[in-house]
Amino acid sequence: MAITYPIFLFLIFSSLVPILSLYEDQVGLTDWHQQYIGKVKQAVFHTHKTGRKRVVVSTELNVIATLDLRRGEIFWRHVLGSNDAVDGMDIALGKYVITLSSEGRVLRAWNLPDGQMVWESSLHGPKHSKSLLLMTNLIIERNNVVVIFSNGRLHAVSCVDGEVLWNKDFEAESLEVQQVIQPAGSNFVYIVGFAASSQFEMYQINARNGELLKHENAAFSGGFSGQVSLVSSETLVALDSTGLILLVISFHEGKISIQHTPISNLVEDAPGPAVIIPSSTMGLFAIRMNAVTIFIRVRGKGMLEVAEKVNRETTIGNALSISEGQQVFALVQHAGRDIRLTVKLAHDWDDDLLKESIKMDQQRGLVHKVFLNNYVRTDRSHGFRALIVMEDHSLLLLQQGTIVWSREDGLASIIDVTTSELPVERAGVSVAKFELNLFEWLKGHMLKLKGTLMLASPEDIAAIQYMRLQSSEKSKMTRDHNGFRKLIIVLTRAGKLFALHTGDGRIVWSRLLQSLCKSEACQHPIGLYLCPWQVPHHHALNENPFVLVVGRCFQSPDALGVLSFVDSYTGKELSSSNLDHSIARVIPLPFTDSTEQRLHLLIDADKKAHFYPKTPEAIGIVRREFSNIYWYSVEDDNGIIKGYALKSKCNSNVADKFCFDASELWSIVLPSESEKIIATVTRKLNEAVHTQAKLIAADQDVMYKYISRNLLFVATVAPKASCEIGSITPEESWLVIYLIDTVTGRVLHRMTHHGSQGPVEAVFSENWVVYHYFNLRAHRYEMSVIEIYDQSRADNKDVWKLVVGKHNLTSPISSYSRSEVVTKSQSYFFTHSLKAIDVTSTAKGITSKQLLIGTIGDQVLALDKRFLDPRRSANPTQVEREEGIIPLTDSLPIIPQSYITHNLRVEGLQGIITVPAKLESTTLVFAYGLDLFFTHFAPTRTYDSLTEEFSYALLLITIVALVAAIFVTWVLSRRKELQDRWR
Amino acid sequence: MEKGKGVMGSGRRWAVDFSDNSTAPSSRDIPDPLGFNRASVDQDDSTVSRQKKDAESNWKAQKAWEVAQAPFKNLLMMGFMMWMAGNTVHLFSIGITFSALWQPISALQGVGKVFEPYKDSKVELLGPKLLFIALNLGGLALGVWKLNTLGLLPTHASDWVSSLPPAQEVEYSGGGIPL
Predict the structure, then answer these.
(1) ipTM for the complex?
(2) Which end of chain B has fewer CB atoms < 10 Å from its terminal CB, N or C?
(3) How far apart are CA A42 and CA A869, in angstroms?
(4) pLDDT-above-70 percentage for chain B
(5) A306: phi > 0 → left, psi -120 to 50 → alpha, else beta; which?
(6) Where in the cell is it found (chain B) (predicted)?
(7) Is the pLDDT confidence value at A525 over 70?
(8) What is chain A's Cα-based Rg?
(9) Which of B160, B162, B174 sits opposite A799 (nearest CB)?
């Protein structure tokens, strides 16, 4: 009996909760998934053997992946943790990928064909240092050896099983290691580096057992700076600390000799200090002075000679040995719209092995990295292919003067996302190429009908599935009346804007923003924020919508701001401006001017408010609403929340009528010794709320939701508890949550969860907040819900007054009216830790809501809001059950079918965006991280439209058959009647 | 019927209407048959027919009362059906409730027609009609009551409030953690 009861409950449950899973053949109908890897840091080709040619890459987003060299597809990919950056990578024995990561602490070997990890060893050392990985051709006891210098210790590790064969400490010496070199054919390695910044150190170490063979050093009074360039196995080039003198350091057979050559001797008009571009090309190196790149040859005994001076943007690739004693390297230069790929022999500057000019999309910016690889043609000559990494983080393979493939890996690092409508379908807008003709339409429907009537052969079924996936309807470039077709506009870390079509995820346009590119005024611009600027409605439908991109010149709160306005249909940058003030906050105001430009309030670091757009009309609107515009700041480092109102015009020396000073209205100072702000969340600006009443069916009662846009949810923890879970005891850890009215500074609700700690992820919608945290006492994650109700409206219960409209429920309310609120809350255990949380949003807000939870497994889980309802009780009454109240359980169920990402993963999940479609039942969900995932999601099924599977042909045929039957029976009945009369 | 009419219109040359009991000699040129006295027929049958008419009107009155009481049975049956249907909103209970509402309404619309056969100068139909109307109103009330118990009548504050949009806010505030 004790067992049957929960089973019975479960049955009730499962009948109540709509299951949102989809069938196998529905995958890909409305969803798409794209995989990216991020900006490539290092690439190693694997093309020696027959079979599939591939390239192994490691990226700045800590991804190790192998790509198909033919198409650029990912064979396998591993995403390492956020603090597990890859320092070095190489291929060993032709079948293992060896990676050194986590600042030289972790060495892993991956199986090249399938990406399985073969072994992992952790390397420890006495102190922090540069991490270097060197693949040797040495064999000790039938083990190939890889030599690693990391954390002040030299390790020799077996490639086969990861066993550390020997190690040697460099603890005592204050060595800054620069290179680990193994001269060809020898069985010792050189460790070279600088000590105390003015001493050159060289160690010669027996690679078989780690024995120190020789240790030499030489002092140079000028000091060393920057990186070194290796010009032979026993010679390297460095710069002195002023950057004006080149030092050629030779350590042949243990004897160190330093030769200095002032740069001014080589180049007449040396503009200033130079930097060395690190490379390891035999007999050649490059330095860069301002924008000029100078190639210098090393001739014999430290003689230097300028090979070429290049004024254009130049990128130098790695050196590649193509045969015994022959090294080549690649140069990529920009020439107008083209890029020029040159492959030169290291010892012969004037001879070009390859010279190709390739037309390059301007929106990819400059070339950042080049990786060269060669292949032997059938006539035994050398062919070259180059993998290049562009400024927008995209990856391209060049071969025989063309771009073989390209990958838009900038999409792996998205900063912000917004959406835009597509153009309205008009006579002028051509959609012809997507239209089907009538015959194909009929054929399609006949196939579908066959499928419905189960007459279809397997080929037909495949054709039906293909047709459904390639439906031209979903990828048109015009608006549809369900609102499914939109543009997702994303801003990436590279400063590039992409517009993705929601139908199939293709890139409609992309633009590398000029304002976010390096310039004189702005050295290291970064993108911060993206929001719709102008969304034309009714009267301005013929105008294009615009988005606003907000950036700043460098990573500091008081850096000057950058604004850019981009047309969201075409991607053209309408205008951009470098502001004369910094940007601390961007506040979109709920007002638009006559051209539907939204007013924005930009707060700078000095707490001055600047209004945009700077038009007289906008300032008129501001004047009208002057006393109703407030703003607040959350200073999370010192725990102060302050509220401000606009006061007066700025009294700076420049007359700017769009700039206002702020006066502080209120402040909430949290005690810094006991509370630290870790999360704040507010409602979305564009959220639609259908009703202000919450009906309680049990006693036909009504509760009024406290719906305010000016509510702020703040979560604080004990300062000690802001570190990782498990580092403190439950007694000294607490989580305090606040609900604050940001106009008046009134704290509406405060609650303490003892023995709990962050990280807190929260979502705020309508009148409720759901937040997720860790309960140290229960050793489990918890989710809590708070619902806020307005008690001062609760006496509006007279039916007759409501019937005749004598109530004040729809009259505007002010935060200063201080309405009484009551809150209800409840907590539940939850199995997963979260990466992101959001809630579905629909066009009118009628459809019930589901929470979208980005789990630690990088999937998106839909959880019905009814599970987080403070009115849940252990034994709900019959009426409550009918209303949809689920019996209370201590933990929230995870229903496997409600993963909306079904069997896919959005690696490195960062955020989830929901956008309402025009169809009330449906919301569009976009999850991004390394991967992108988009789907349509109907929280309570699509109750307002026929499903995709609905067979119109069957309906049509049924109607025709019915009409025919009616006609036939009418004729028959006429005839029978006539016969009756004749009788 | 129609066939007969057609025949009579054209085929028959003459006819005698025996039920013609007017005292005046036949208006036609054909004389009355011999021994046929128009006056005497009337005289002989008068008492009998009066009795007959009384009986008929009594019968009509009785029938009218019966008809007037008929909805009562209906009412009982409806009540039973409603009890069977339960208080939850589903297809069966909605069907029952709407038929319970529709029947009295259609019956009330056809009050005149129902009592048409019993119309007589001597029969007092007001009483039965009132009873009939009252009973049907009772049925209607029962239906409305059922509708209410199903929760389909807007008698609660919640029914009027749920369509109200949220109130506008006067102030606007934005901001947050610095970018």
Answers:
(1) 0.77
(2) N
(3) 50
(4) 78
(5) beta
(6) Endoplasmic reticulum membrane
(7) yes
(8) 34
(9) B160
Q: How many CA atoms lie within 13 A of A715 on its CB side?
A: 27
| Residue at B32 is within a domain | no
Q: For A945-977, write each residue's pLDDT tens digit.
A: 877 667 777 889 999 999 999 999 999 999 999
Domain membership of residue B143 (yes or no) is: yes
Contact between A777 and A730 under an 8 Å Cβ cutoff? The reply is yes
CATH-assigned architecture of domain A315-407 = Beta Barrel (2.40)
Is residue B165 included in any domain, yes or no? no
Which long-range contacts does A161-165 make (Cβ < 8 Å, 24+ apart)?
A: A161/A119, A162/A107, A162/A109, A162/A118, A162/A119, A162/A120, A162/A121, A163/A121, A164/A121, A164/A123, A165/A140
Cα dihedral A457→A461→A462→A467 (10° resolution): 140
Separation CA A444–CA A433 (nearest Å): 18
- Measured between beta carbons, which residues in chain B are less than 8 angstroms from residue A796? 157, 161
Query: Residues B90-119: pLDDT tens digits?
Result: 888 888 888 888 988 998 888 888 888 777
From first CA to last CA, the distance across chain B in angstroms is: 96
Task: Identify the domain containing residue B87 by its residue range.
Answer: 66-155
Q: What DSSP assignment string belongs to A824-836?
A: EEEEEEESS-EEE
Which residue of A601, A603, A693 is in closest CB contact with B161?
Answer: A693
**Do B172 and A709 count as a contact with CB atoms less than 8 A apart?**
yes
Segment A474-492 mean pLDDT: 88
Quote the pLDDT of residue A57. Answer: 94
Indicate the burial class of A430 (C-beta count within 10 angstroms; 0-12, 13-18, 19 or more). Answer: exposed
* DSSP per-residue string spanning B102-159: HHHHHHHHTHHHHTGGG--SSS--HHHHHHHHHHHHHHHHHHHHHHHHTT-S--SHHH
Inter-chain touch A629–B172, beta carbons under 8 Å = yes
Q: How many domains are there within chain B? A: 1
Cβ neighbours of A813 in B, within 8 Å:
167-170
Does residue B132 lie within any of the structural domains? yes
pLDDT of A800-810, one tens digit each?
777 777 777 78
- CB-defined contacts A:B, below 8 A: 138
Number of Cβ within 10 Å of residue A351's Cβ equals 8
Q: Measured between beta carbons, which residues in chain B are less than 8 angstroms from residue A557?
A: 178
Cβ separation B88–A882 shorter than 8 A:
yes
